[in-house]
Design a protein that fits this description.
The chain has 115 residues and is an all-beta fold. Helix content is 0%, strand content 34%. The chain has a single domain, classed as Immunoglobulins (Immunoglobulin-like, Sandwich), CATH 2.60.40. It has no helices and nine strands. The protein has a four-stranded mixed β-sheet with strand order 1-9-5-6, with no helix packed on it. It is globular. The N terminus and C terminus are likely disordered. Keywords: Adaptive immunity, Immunity, Immunoglobulin domain, Receptor, Signal, T cell receptor. InterPro entries: Ig-like_dom, Ig-like_dom_sf, Ig-like_fold, Ig_V-set, TCR_variable_region. One of its GO terms (biological process) is adaptive immune response. Pfam families: V-set.
Length: 115
């Protein structure tokens, strides 16, 4: 049975040279499937912090994970690739309750590359 899941991402708000870029639009998928939501980032920080949030309709965004999350989660996973500057979110075993807006966010640490 085909179930529709809509994984939406919003065009990012950028600040100077620091920004995240996500695909925008709907991603219909089947129940039980696995999806990967891409997050590409640009920053002047030597060690940025990356995060994923999930927002259900009429609710505030809730934290899912960041690159330091070490507790095993069999639903969500993400691996930071600082060379490619990506932080893709993998969602496993999709359920109807996974339909939401997903946000990738970036926060600069205290160390910056001088320009």
């Amino acid at each position: 049975m085909l179930m529709s899941y809509f994984f939406l991402s919003i065009f990012p708000v950028s600040s100077g040279q620091d920004r995240v870029k996500q695909s925008s639009g709907e991603m219909p998928e089947s129940e039980g499937a696995q999806v990967i939501l891409m997050c590409n980032y640009t920053t002047t920080s030597l060690s940025p912090d990356l995060f994923w949030y999930k927002q259900l309709p009429n609710r505030s965004p809730t934290f899912i994970l960041n690159q330091y999350t070490t507790e095993p989660d069999f639903k969500y996973s993400a691996t930071l690739n600082s060379t490619l500057r990506t932080f893709p979110l993998m969602i496993k075993n999709l359920l109807v309750s996974d339909s939401a807006v997903y946000y990738c966010a970036l926060s600069k640490s205290a160390k910056y590359i001088s320009e």
